[in-house]
């Protein structure tokens, strides 16, 4: 007889192995990008690659709560901004170490997510979406009001973050591999979370909150914890974006960016960490490619997104699974 107090395992082992293999392929291809850029004498590939890796972290973090906890946060870009402004504010005051930038961004995001999540998670459905949007816009307009840091115009960094006092991140390849290492590390963390008892309870709240309560668990605590973890990971992406662009503005926190993160998750496949990473890769690569041919690239991107939603609701990973090429929901 099964233990009725243990939440059901929702992801069979073969799919877990498939997810890991797919992620490994993505990471190997990502690791080879600087080599390809060197061979083709196109250093811009490394620059755009760093941006893609940062957004992949943010998309994966969002999928942790959207795909596994059914929490559609439309204000998640605020945490990108917290990470980015941690770099700007601390650097302005002489604190340039990336470890301290990461700790500051994570701490600020954790506090903001704890407070706003505690309020937001008392709502459901469209109300949750709108209240997270409202909190996100509050953060956005707060940083718009900071005239000492450029206000709406933003602020340019004098230099990138340092590592142990050394300006190693000034090298684009070093910055790229740092972002890749963070993505791999956070993917490993997320994979462990979703396969743990905590992850099974979180997934159970997505499926049937009443049943989880009947089993003796408190869904609110699990959802709030996941919300805070997701916010902290997103702030890491913000730190990397700030260093990649060497420019920070409140635009990082706009609701448009939150929408873009949701699009990446949908494109790759909701409830699939590897799919969220692949969705970020695909979305930003399509943006770059389509932008070469037309300034109206968003129109064609929209058509592609509609086709994916209509014919492969599980995103690109679902399509690959149907074609027996891997991918897992």
From TrEMBL:
A single Gene Ontology CC term: plasma membrane
UniProt KW keywords: Cell membrane, Membrane, Transmembrane, Transmembrane helix
Keyword Cell membrane attached: yes
Keyword Cell membrane assigned: yes
Location in or out of the cell: Cell membrane
Pfam families: BPD_transp_2
CDD domains (alphabetical): TM_PBP1_LivM_like
Segments crossing the lipid bilayer: 53-70, 77-94, 100-119, 126-146, 174-194, 220-241, 261-284, 296-313
GO molecular function terms noted in the UniProt entry: branched-chain amino acid transmembrane transporter activity
Membrane topology: Multi-pass membrane protein
PANTHER family, per the entry: ABC TRANSPORTER ATP-BINDING PROTEIN, HIGH-AFFINITY BRANCHED-CHAIN AMINO ACID TRANSPORT SYSTEM PERMEASE
Name of the molecule in the record: ABC transporter permease protein
Organism the protein comes from: Roseovarius nubinhibens (strain ATCC BAA-591 / DSM 15170 / ISM)
């Amino acid at each position: 007889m099964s233990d009725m107090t243990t939440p059901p395992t929702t992801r069979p082992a073969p799919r877990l192995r498939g997810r890991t293999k797919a992620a490994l392929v993505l990471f190997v291809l990502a690791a080879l990008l600087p080599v390809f850029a060197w061979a083709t004498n196109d250093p811009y590939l490394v620059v755009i690659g760093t941006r893609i890796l940062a957004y992949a972290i943010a998309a994966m973090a969002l999928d942790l709560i959207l795909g596994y906890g059914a929490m559609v946060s439309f204000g998640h870009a605020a945490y990108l901004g917290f990470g980015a402004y941690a770099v700007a504010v601390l650097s302005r005051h002489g604190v340039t170490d990336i470890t301290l930038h990461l700790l500051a961004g994570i701490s600020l995001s954790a506090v903001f997510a704890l407070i706003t999540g505690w309020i937001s998670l008392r709502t459901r459905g469209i109300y949750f979406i709108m209240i997270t949007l409202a909190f996100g816009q509050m953060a956005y307009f707060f940083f718009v009001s900071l005239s000492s840091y450029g206000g709406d115009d933003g602020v340019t960094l004098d230099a990138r973050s340092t590592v142990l006092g050394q300006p190693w991140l000034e090298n684009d390849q070093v910055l790229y591999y740092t972002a890749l290492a963070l993505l791999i590390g956070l993917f490993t963390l997320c994979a462990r979370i979703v396969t743990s008892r905590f992850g099974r309870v979180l997934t159970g709240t997505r499926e049937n909150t009443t049943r989880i309560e009947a089993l003796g668990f408190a869904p609110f605590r699990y959802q709030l914890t996941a919300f805070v973890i997701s916010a902290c990971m997103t702030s890491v992406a913000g730190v990397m974006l700030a260093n990649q662009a060497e420019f920070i503005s409140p635009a990082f926190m706009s609701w448009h960016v939150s929408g873009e993160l949701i699009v990446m998750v949908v494109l790759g496949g909701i409830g699939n960490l590897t799919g969220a990473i692949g969705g970020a890769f695909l979305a930003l690569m399509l943006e770059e490619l389509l932008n070469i041919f037309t300034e109206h690239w968003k129109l064609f991107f929209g058509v592609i997104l509609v086709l994916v939603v209509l014919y492969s609701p599980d995103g690109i990973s679902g399509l690959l699974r149907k074609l027996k090429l891997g991918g897992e929901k």
